[in-house]
Design a protein that fits this description.
heterotrimer, A alpha/beta, B alpha/beta, C alpha/beta, B: alpha/beta, five-stranded parallel sheet, four-stranded parallel sheet, 11 helices, 38% helix, C: alpha/beta, TIM Barrel, 2 domains, 14 helices, 21 strands
Chain lengths: 200, 320, 437
Amino acid sequence: MTHESGDARPAGSRPGLITTRQVLDAAGVARAVEAIAAELRRRRGDDAAELALVGIHSGGVPLAKRLAQALAATGWPAPPVGMIDITLYRDDVFLGLPQPIVGETELGFDVNGRRLVLVDDVLFTGRTVRSALDALIDFGRPRSIELAVLVDRGHRELPIEPTYVGCRAETRLDENVHVALTELGAASDAVVVESRRGTA
Amino acid sequence: MIDGAVRSEAEFPALQHLLGLEGLTRGEISSILDLSTRMKEIGERPLKKVPSLRGKTVCTLFVEASTRTRTSFEVAAKRLSADTMSLTASASSLTKGETLLDTAKNLEAMGPDIIILRHSAAGAPHFLARHVRAAVVNAGDGRHEHPTQGLLDLFTIRERLGRLEGLEVAIVGDVANSRVARSNIFALRTMGAKVRLSGPATMMPPGLEALGVTPCRRIEEAIDGADVVMMLRIQKERMGSDLFPSDREYFRCFGLTRERLKRARPHVLVMHPGPINRGVEITPDVADGPESVILEQVTNGVAVRMAVLYVLAHRQGRAS
Amino acid sequence: MNRLVITGGTLYGCDGGGERRGAVLIEGGQIVDIVAEVPSGFREAPELDAEGAWVVPGFICLRSHVGEPGFEWREDVASVSLAAASGGFTTVCATPDTDPVNDVRAVTEQIMTRAAAAPGARVVPVGAATRGLEGKHLSEIGDLAAAGCVAVSTGELAVASAQMMRRILEYCRSLDVRVFACSVDASMARGALMNEGFQSLRLGLPGVPSEAEATAILRDGWLSRLAGWPVHFQRVSSAAGVRALEILQREGIPFTADCTPHHLWFSDEAVSGYDTATKVLPPLRCREDVSALREALRAGLITAVATDHAPRSQLEKWVEYDHASAGTTGLETALGVVLELVRQRVLTLQEGLQRLSAGPARVLGRPDLGRLGSGARADVVLVDPDVPWRVDGAHLRTRGQNHLFEGQALSGTVRNTVVGGRVVSFEGAEGVKRAYR
């Protein structure tokens, strides 16, 4: 498990009862990142000033780095990439996470006046993003914050919408969206929906 | 459990209370130290506060005075956004003949999630933990343990030297009466460091070998090739008692001087839990020298205590 | 004519030793005879059915803290008397550390008066050898003995001054009064909370080494040779103490010694967790000490098990280990402990029962106690040997709330206790226990 997408993975799942369906393959992930880069560049009107990316631990961090590379590939200066861990900002940390391990927070730049893009792998309830916004604002006063996600799986519980979306996936509430990335030890990139009832 | 089974290197500690470092696994200690690294970063931010323990109440109950330790815990709690209240021996009713149990029950009625206890009696935190629902942190109990001091010492060593396994650590001073020594010995042994002790035999009880440490008759033997030299505080009130005749004599036999320190490794760290008796345990030039990490220990104390509070608050949340 | 017949049981502790069957005939507070067939004169006497039980001499505790006068919230003569009887004890020696200290006739007489009305076991006072147990001035030991003290005690620790100890022994020799001593060096015991050793090192509690016991036993032994009067060493707790007794024995210095059930059972490992129930004086020692004590008890170097019954209220134990009062109850668990030692083949059954009855009777110089036979006091216990039970403080009769043996599985219960020919009744005993709750 690599993603921190806001939903604790329910315990007790038995491998034999899980069925999966793939939403994106490796090429799909690459295309999605390129699409986000293109859209970002379009919306910014080619103005790269003060741009910085912030990946949310842990899935958002490699994606932010890829997005920076993708932007550089279009001829932009590669924006600085920071990472942020939101465990200490969560509103559900005392509700039963088995291992609330706190990841590293390292921005490496002053957020004041920046036009930030927050990057995460999966957008689900919106609570992770809410926590990340709180955390970021504790570091200073950015000029703006946008949100880029690889997958939007729906089921929002807060009024939070992404600025940039790699793909949208129809999911049931009890399903799990798993984003495999090579940087986090996966054999190849993929986005997979896991269903425990085997009726997907 | 001094050389207990090693589980994974970092496992989230299954602690209801932190009463001592004896019995913690290697994985649990590693996990607290890892967490402390994250907590230390928060202390370097412009806004040194996270909302993690918002709505939690942390109470410090200090039946034995220690402004430093109490302040360190309070800063730690506040950086995690916990509400804090504090009782000290003179302010609380313990001086009026109220028992610790009465005080604890009254405290409990105010609903603290974590109680931090400093007490002159060994085992007082264990007693408290049996009688309250809150998580109990031992902030020093008599001559028994001072677990957060031990953790901050380990954190400081690991941060500076990159590891604990295989290090040679010399602990010098009043080993028999030092809770700092005890916590360090338990945790350092669990983490695979080698510990040598030195001090006057009146402060080195027989049977120390059973703790997995090497007693040395002379301070030079303990320091020889050491990666870390940890000096213990001498209680001056013991001077002239049956333990040692004078601070002058103590310094001559067991004080840390630059000359003695030359026997250690070049990268040696000099540590002291504070407050220092300059010229008794240690010369001023060593205490303020490049090897000294004494002030870093203080900074790290806040980070380690944040980690401990976070772990315990998390367990409390799951238990309720 | 105050007759009683005990029939149907297996008898131990009869004159001549061994195990036998028969009826115990009791009249006027004494055992008249032990016979195969109940004679016609006793056919009308009340009968106590001992079928399936052991019939043994009543137990004698050489050291119990009775609490009266001065500590009635812990225990008093009436409550200790019932607690003792319920544990099979028929005679209990009361320590002089009362408030005021039992160092004058008036206090002894008060205890004697209360003891005369006691509902269960006989309570006999032990006087203080020195005024206020301070080890500085002799008490009126002759007066104390005349008023009913069966011995004098030097206190909880060894007398600090060797010269004072010598004078106590000399003075008692001239009056033919027995001297009980807990020989532990006071300067080393001061401030100690447990045994000094690996466990005290782990737990950070100040300890007293067993050498404090050995050195004091040797000193008092030599002083007793000088004074020409023996010491009865109480609550010997360590291997070092046992070695010291062996030296005295080799030197031909006469002495007797007892130890407690808890020192025969628990080691200082029980102190982990700082449970104040484990705080006793002398402290619980190491496993090797427990083994050495058991061996000394078997070999007869130690001839008596004395409970050192020290009841405490919850208030005195529900505090920090430093502040907790030392002591455990013991009268109701001693038999179970001794029978467990028998089960573990540390002692034979005869030896085990003997350490609770004939052994202590000899220390007191009382040939009429601790045996079943004509002319003996009719102090008899009926024991159901194989009944397993678990110690539960709520069901004990002592008023004390500090039970080191709480939760331990023991076997062997007391069916009836006969004190001076009278069967002890426990009716109304609950009221005695609750009076101070």
